[in-house]
Design brief:
With 479 residues, the chain is of the alpha/beta class. Helices cover 39% and strands 19% of the residues. It is globular, with a radius of gyration of 22 Å.
């Protein structure tokens, strides 16, 4: 049984040893935004949602609990969950999208000589230390979503090697961690041991098993954060494998050998490979905004059927959206964009309607990912010729064909693209159980469902779209 805990909820899947998904279920939890730039969640809700989803999966599948060979979690990255000596949560989790710690990031950047921004992990710990010194002293352990779920399941405190910001098996990354912890005056002893994603961390306790509907003593594995989990589930965990994820946020990632000398942090799949990523803040978030804004009545009437409805609508729009350009930056963007950049449309005419607006937003997402592709290719000196696309956005054939045309690469959509994170976590448990050899074999096991090739007849149209997109961003002071 594998879980994928994102920003809005958790997915649970029951995965056969052949990699097929036997059953799935979702459960949601709240996102708290008490102030501008703040983003928090209640850790207890992670656990209760996981238990609801687990019981639902067992009911749906008809599988007896004793047949579940292992449990593993994949979760959102960079959560901060402080626990006291009795295991009580001392503060809501400050999650990956939170930007409250800008002042602390600037302090740490100056003290360390390293780049440090508000979304980084250490500034949030420093913010907590400065604002709540008594709670910081009471904290015996900082966990994140994955570590907290493992703790609730087993009573063991551990953080997987892809989500640890105090300890790393890579010497040059450890040096960077030491530098940042010293810059913030942060105590490395407040972080638990590091484990591999494939390690057995512990066994499910009697209480946890009762709450989840499983058997006490079921092995629980180290798991990992969302990006490496998605990489594995997308079939891109072999060296040079590339993938695109389209969820609330989005990214393009390429798996590289870890011996290239770059102190990356810490998108580690294993000791010999890491993921070179370049992301964006609002991928499907932008699409969802379009549906709420331009298709409000249809969304209320059709529910999930809205996606097929809009897919048919967009099929009527020619590539390029009749010259309309959209900048889909609802939540700011990373460099070279300005973090204060916001979304906008340019070149709107009387010939455009809501279909053109939505289509242009999807093209804008593709253009940002084209920029990210160029950044990775420049950094690595190697071209990207194929990507596997996963996440909710990969369910749109229209968008995937557009992606192939704009990026000028083959785009492949695996089976179970919506569950790539949970499937990637499941493969980690399979390796730990001896049911799968390694991450190369994991990549081989992922089956491709659809393939999209760039259409030569639209290359010029989309090259012009790309030039307009870059000029628009530049004119807004974003590049």
């Amino acid at each position: 049984m594998a879980f994928d805990a994102g920003t809005s909820g958790i997915k649970a899947v029951l995965v056969g040893v052949d990699g097929t998904i036997r059953a799935s279920a979702n459960a949601g939890y709240s996102l708290l935004r008490p102030h501008e730039g703040w983003a928090e969640q209640i850790p207890e809700e992670y656990w209760t949602a996981a238990c609801r989803a687990a019981r639902c999966v067992l009911r749906e599948s008809g599988v007896e609990p004793e047949l579940v060979a292992g449990v593993v979690f994949a979760t959102q990255w960079k959560g901060m969950v402080p626990l006291d000596e009795d295991g009580n949560v001392l503060h809501n989790s400050i999650i990956w999208m939170d930007t409250r710690a800008g002042e602390e990031a600037a302090e740490m950047a100056q003290a360390s000589g390293q780049s440090c921004v508000a979304r980084d992990y250490w500034p949030r710990i420093l913010w907590f230390k400065k604002r709540y010194p008594e709670l910081y002293e009471k904290t015996v352990c900082f966990l994140e979503a994955n570590g907290y779920l493992k703790y609730r399941a087993t009573g063991e405190k551990a953080i997987d090697q892809g989500e640890h910001f105090a300890r790393s098996p890579i010497e040059r990354v450890q040096e960077l961690f030491d530098t940042m912890l010293e810059a913030g005056g942060l105590d490395a002893d407040k972080f638990p041991p590091v484990v591999k994603s494939t390690d057995e961390v512990g066994r499910m306790t009697v209480q946890a098993a009762e709450e989840m509907g499983l058997c006490a003593g079921t092995p629980v594995f180290g798991g990992l954060c969302d990006i490496p989990a998605v990489t594995i589930g997308a079939g891109a965990s072999a060296v040079d494998g590339a993938h695109i994820y389209l969820g609330t946020s989005g990214w393009l990632g390429v798996t590289r050998a870890i011996d290239d000398g770059k102190p990356r942090i810490p998108m580690v799949i294993s000791e010999d490979r890491w993921i070179h990523t370049a992301g964006m803040q609002a991928a499907c978030m932008s699409y969802d905004w379009c549906l709420r804004t331009f298709y409000c009545a249809e969304l209320a009437q059709l529910g999930d059927g809205i996606f097929d409805f809009v897919e048919k609508e967009l099929s009527q729009i020619p590539p390029g959206s009749l010259g309309l350009t959209a900048l889909p930056s609802l939540n700011g963007e990373g460099g070279p964009f300005s973090p204060t950049m916001r979304a906008g449309f340019t070149n709107v005419t009387a010939s455009h309607d809501r279909r053109h607006m939505v289509n242009a937003v999807l093209e804008g997402v593709c253009c940002i990912l084209r920029l990210r592709k160029g950044m990775i290719e420049k950094s690595t000196g190697r071209p990207i010729t194929r990507v596997n696309a996963v996440g909710g956005g990969a369910g749109s054939d229209h968008w995937m064909q557009m992606m192939a045309d704009i990026l000028q690469v083959e785009v492949c959509v695996p089976e179970n693209a919506r569950y790539s994170g949970a499937l990637g976590a499941a493969y980690c448990a399979m390796i730990g159980l001896g049911l799968c050899r390694d991450f190369d074999e994991c990549a081989e096991k992922v089956r491709i469902k659809k393939r999209f090739q760039p259409r030569p007849e639209y290359k010029e149209v989309y090259d012009q779209k790309w030039e307009r997109f870059c000029k628009t961003a530049d004119a807004l002071g974003s590049l």
